[in-house]
Design brief:
Number of strands: 12
Structural class: mainly beta
C-alpha cells in the first residue's frame, strides 16, 4: 500500500587499548609501562544504536480528475530516525593530563569512593552536573590515575531527517521534481561531553553543543528534458 520501512537495533560493547575517537583523532598509549592499564571502553563505543527509515507514497488518485491527480497524487514522504548513545569519555588527570610526567598526556583522575551519580535528574540538572565532581580528584604526582578508561557515555542523540518530494511527468520527454528536506526536523538539541578536568572550576558541567546541528531545511526544483 505504498509504505516500506526498516528498523535496526544494535546493542554492543567495544574494548581496546588504543582507538581513534569519533572526531577522527588518535589517542596514544597513555601508560607505556603497563599496557593493561590502557585497556578499557573504546573511544568509538556506542552501546545502543537504533535506526528506522521509511518511505511512503500517497495514492495516485488515477480515477480522479487531472488537476486533483496532479496536485495531490503520488507525493512521497521519506524519513530516517536515529537514536544513539553519546560519546564515551573518562575523567582526565591533573597538569593537563601529565601529572605522571610521562609526556603522554593521557593520565586519568583518581576516584574518591563517592558515587558517580551520572546523568541524574532533568536536563537543567545534568547540564550543570553530568556526574558527581566529588567522586574524582587529581591523580597523585608520578602516577597515571586509578579511574577507568571511558567509564561514562555522554548525552545521546535523538534526530529525525524528513524529506517530501513529488514528480510530474510532462509528455514523454519532460519531468519536474520538487523536493523539500529537513535535517534534525524536530530540532532536538545535541550536547557535547561535560568538562572532564577535575582541577577546573566546573567539572561535570556541559558548556557546548554536540555534533548534530539545529534544524536545517533545503528545497530543490529539478527540470529534466
Amino acid at each position: 500500500h505504498g509504505l516500506q520501512f526498516q528498523s535496526s537495533f544494535t546493542w554492543s560493547k567495544t574494548l581496546d587499548t588504543f582507538s581513534i575517537n569519533s572526531l577522527a583523532q588518535a589517542t596514544g598509549i597513555a601508560n607505556p609501562f603497563d599496557i593493561r592499564w590502557n585497556r578499557g571502553i573504546s573511544n568509538v563505543n556506542f552501546p545502543l544504536i537504533s535506526v528506522t527509515n521509511l518511505i511512503y507514497e500517497t495514492p495516485s488518485l488515477k480515477n480522479s480528475g487531472y488537476l486533483l491527480r496532479s496536485v495531490l497524487g503520488r507525493w512521497q514522504l521519506s524519513g530516517i530516525w536515529t537514536l544513539q548513545s553519546g560519546n564515551a569519555f573518562g575523567i582526565g588527570g591533573g597538569n593537563g593530563g601529565d601529572q605522571s610526567d610521562s609526556l603522554q598526556y593521557g593520565d586519568r583522575a583518581d576516584v574518591t569512593g563517592q558515587p558517580y551519580q551520572v546523568h541524574q535528574g532533568g536536563k537543567s540538572h545534568w547540564l550543570n552536573q553530568y556526574f558527581n565532581p566529588a567522586a574524582f580528584k587529581v591523580n597523585a604526582p608520578g602516577t597515571f590515575g586509578n579511574s577507568g578508561r571511558n567509564i561514562f557515555q555522554g548525552p545521546g542523540i535523538n534526530t529525525a531527517d524528513i524529506g517530501i518530494d513529488k514528480n510530474w511527468k510532462i509528455r514523454e520527454k519532460y519531468a519536474i521534481q520538487f523536493r523539500w528536506e529537513m535535517f534534525n526536523a524536530l530540532n532536538h538539541p545535541s550536547f557535547a561531553i561535560p568538562n572532564t578536568d577535575p582541577s577546573s572550576a566546573n567539572p561535570g558541567q556541559i558548556t557546548s553543543t554536540g555534533v548534530t546541528p539545529p534544524r536545517v531545511m533545503q528545497g530543490a526544483l529539478k527540470v529534466t528534458f
